[in-house]
Request: fold
Amino acid sequence: MASPELSVIIPVHNESANIAPLCGRLLPVLNRITSRWEVIFVDDGSRDDTLDLIRAQSLKEPRIGAVSFSRNFGKEIAIAAGLDHARGDAVVIADADLQHPPEMIETFVERWKEGYDMVYGQRTDRSDETRAKRGFAHLFYRLFARFGEIELPPGAGDFRLIDRKGVDVLRALGEKARFSKGLYAWIGFKSTGVPFVVEERLHGATKWSFRKLFRFAFDGIAAFSTAPLRIWTYLGFLISFLAIATAVYFLVRTMLFGTDLPGFPSLIVSVMFFSGIQLMSLGIIGEYVGRIFAEVKRRPLYVVSERLGGAAEVGTGLVPDGSRMMRRV
Ligand code: UDP
Ligand code: MG
Reply:
């Protein structure tokens, strides 16, 4: 079979109810675009029958393949695995829950043919999310815009088309704590956004808990900014300056008026304040050291337990370099 022109990567984690409806809507769209397409499901350690349903689809339609992880590694890593296994000249990343309307892929491909290397879906509103989540997202993007080394286009997520050039660059980035949104922007290339409305999740509930989102946000900031480390240098300078000023003040006062009753409460308060600051700054340094540790261990990004369809061919031909993945078992 000729190598595919278009690859669609779909990370899935316990999405059994969505597999059939997704294929039902996605495949006609792909067939309208080209016959040389492939779909790669990345089964991110599902514990339901998601993989069996994908297997059934793959038997009916050999252009549907899958990479199945040995456990849950997270969506970011699932996307990385999808990129490793995709063979297309252009690669589309989409969610399984139909929140990313497959029909948009036609527009993505049109833009790509016009010469854009990266076409991202830009959500026009976030009204599907809770207020707290929206507020948190807003705060994160403000912080990122202020301290991040790169600019994130507003409303852009993982739903996008990436040209082969960009895919190869993304694959060459060996980062473990992956913040894809940042990486997409970091690699550059000619990009454009296409607005779209996020649909309701078809079945099931979102897999992102608040705690997961918080870690994700911190990973994002830490991967693209050293501002959290630098704050402490500035604060250190400021506090030293204040300390010297206070020392001078006390010296002059003692010389002019002699000592009076020493102030214990203020002493305790300042000791507590400064130990708090020291612990906090140590913690932040620890976060970065932890990330350095994770990177230098050079563990593979993910472990594959099974491959189906086209994804299995990649296991022998276009093999991702051995340092980044386990061989087929
Ligand atoms: N997903 C995944 N691994 C995870 C969590 C989610 O592969 O650990 C997949 C999930 O199956 C879906 C996509 O990532 O296809 C987006 O997840 P979800 O809809 O839960 O996120 P949201 O749309 O709420 O951001
Ligand atoms: Mg979703």
